[in-house]
Amino acid sequence: MNSELHHVVVVGAGFGGLELVRALGKAPVRVTLIDQRNHHLFQPLLYQVATTSLATSEIAWPIRHLVRHEKAVTTLLATVTGVDKANKCVVLDDGDTIAYDTLVLATGARHSYFGRDEWEQFAPGLKTLEDATTIRRHVLRAFEQAERETDAEARNALLTFVIIGGGPTGVELAGTIAELAHATLRADFRNIDTRDTKVVLVEAGDRILAAFRPDLSAYAKRALERLGVTVELGHAVSSCNADGVVFGGRHLAARNIIWAAGVAASPAAQWLGAEADRAGRAIVEDDLTVAGHPDIFVIGDTAQVKRADGRPVPGIAPAAKQAGRHVAATLKARLAGNDAKRPFVYKHQGDLATIGKRAAVIDFGRISFTGWPAWWLWGIAHIFFLIGLRNRLAVAMNWLWIYATGQRSARLITQGRQPSSP
Amino acid sequence: MNSELHHVVVVGAGFGGLELVRALGKAPVRVTLIDQRNHHLFQPLLYQVATTSLATSEIAWPIRHLVRHEKAVTTLLATVTGVDKANKCVVLDDGDTIAYDTLVLATGARHSYFGRDEWEQFAPGLKTLEDATTIRRHVLRAFEQAERETDAEARNALLTFVIIGGGPTGVELAGTIAELAHATLRADFRNIDTRDTKVVLVEAGDRILAAFRPDLSAYAKRALERLGVTVELGHAVSSCNADGVVFGGRHLAARNIIWAAGVAASPAAQWLGAEADRAGRAIVEDDLTVAGHPDIFVIGDTAQVKRADGRPVPGIAPAAKQAGRHVAATLKARLAGNDAKRPFVYKHQGDLATIGKRAAVIDFGRISFTGWPAWWLWGIAHIFFLIGLRNRLAVAMNWLWIYATGQRSARLITQGRQPSSP
């Protein structure tokens, strides 16, 4: 590798970081791509791992394999703990430093409990593969425990699932858990009827899918209710514990709570000492650089960017990808001697969410779809965005299988408490 | 469920327990099937999860789903800690007891370190899905660390893999890791050449695959060597630690050690206070019952059974299945009023092992196969024995993909140390 070349260090190989690296293509730079995980994760389908529809390896790929043909890119599995702006280097957890000419932070976000971190043990969130297998284990174990439970009240609590947060993740989890209980698992138990399962979606706002048009929110609510989900609007959760949740002044006994409500940015803003919004996102200039540091970009869920009309750019995959491409174009222009500031213009392509295996809502602004045409469009779009022919085939086969048989293939309780014998 | 019916309690839903439950079919009994895991595991392909070829959910299925059509069967996820022969019940870890009329223990085996349990932390074994993802994590992380390591000696130790034990599991692991290093990962690294990886298979006996004919052992050794594996025969390992292994008086620096050498039975014999062999297996009568207890059967890897010629029945899936069918037939005969002792006669169908993705050895006694015809026969046989059309399709697709492209789909480092930052 020619060490005379301009060195771009990218931290985070999510949608933004990966798109940036690919868009740099044959630009005369060398790139170091750092991530604390060895895999890029297709987060929009993570809820399907949590609900036994897909295997972990169907939505995650080794980062270094994805960029194996970009000979200018070195991939490092390492954890960044800080940025030394004065010496222009990032600091790793083992004390090593990596010097940069240009730094791009694309480190994403994690769920936030709005200062109530003690809720996490009772209401796990969903951001990583481990989060997904943890939720899968909790969900499946609840039915197993209910099968052995003789006390009716305790059994009802085991068969009550509360999902907190009515965004796409909460809606998708609620719909899929309802289908799992009411269809997939029905024939497998002897002492319980899994159709007695209660699935409750709690949303503090006055409608679910708040990013969508109000009529689509109303449709999604009806579609969830048809699947047997109870939708509770206008209630913030005031307490979570091992026995259940409190919302709207009443206590609901539930042994299964999933958190899909809040998001907090990674500490990129702290590393930089940059101004941040309440969710911890670095507030960046309109060209995605940090004020006073044209050599440092922050993109994706860990940055706060405004659209022309003042609304924030949403924390979704297409926005991160557009930002990655924008930074690549800016760097290429700079290398060609053009240092003019290039503002990022976000193009919103639409919002999508599925409700179970036969309905979805798609909001393209003027045009919208609901019902099974939306479900098929959603499925085809997601298969298109998956990486690699093999994964597209595998996921398509899984979905068609679930569609035709109602059976899900990844009903595994793994990790967690290890059986002690033998 | 009619509680007047004869109650058969089966502990363990491996090959033996599951085959027994299925073979009971419509017999006038009620059955309780207890396992500490929620899934039946196809152990012969576990090494393919450890070496990134298959996903966990492709070789494991929820037990209760597999027996959903057997309405007489209740499945329990529970851990058995003992047997109360006087009161005819099994004891669970939460203190609950389950009464039986007939008890079948099919609790399998785990790896054994021959009294050197402190080796386990350095040389993990392979019996459960968690074992497989642990080994997968270690193997993949070694290459990641080598990519960052600047000291040549430390890098060589990271790129040295020692597999202890030359049975089918050891041979299959060694062959697949060699392929992973020399082909799959080759294009993905910048600072190391993964073809420098050393894979060493250490076997204490004078040949690998000792259960096979000597000429097939010799073929397997040559096939491994063609893949770049060093086979060390006649050396027992005398020490394992974080730096490497000692065998034949010399120390080999290696940061990756996998244990495929010894097996210890589950504590079924201890639960029963029954006579056991050195590996902890209960020594049973020729009808698979425990001496003095015609109502208690022990089958599979946790029992020691002799063949007519005095050799032990091997610890392989077909033997466990045959024993399961034999116990089912005995129970049916007894229910029909025939209490005559029915000795178990094991029929050995053959031995199979693969070496990488193009060679295998199959020993049917008089007939044997090697090379690619054996590999295809092995593959077709294993797909046939997988459960469910969906898994057969998925595994077949995976194998054809690996065969055609050399790429493996499950290269995920998961669990283990959790990244601390969001």
From TrEMBL, chains A, B:
It catalyses: a quinone + NADH + H(+) = a quinol + NAD(+). Keywords: FAD, Flavoprotein, Membrane, NAD, Oxidoreductase, Transit peptide, Transmembrane, Transmembrane helix. It is an enzyme of class 1 (oxidoreductase). Its EC number is 1.6.5.9. Belongs to the NADH dehydrogenase family. It comes from the Bacteria. This is NADH:ubiquinone reductase (non-electrogenic). Residues 348-400 form the External alternative NADH-ubiquinone oxidoreductase-like C-terminal domain. Gene3D superfamilies: 3.50.50.100. InterPro entries: FAD/NAD-bd_sf (IPR036188), FAD/NAD-binding_dom (IPR023753), NDH-2 (IPR045024), NDH2-like_C (IPR054585). GO terms for molecular function: NADH dehydrogenase (quinone) (non-electrogenic) activity. The chain crosses the membrane at residues 372-389. It comes from Mesorhizobium hungaricum. Residues 7-324 form the FAD/NAD(P)-binding domain.
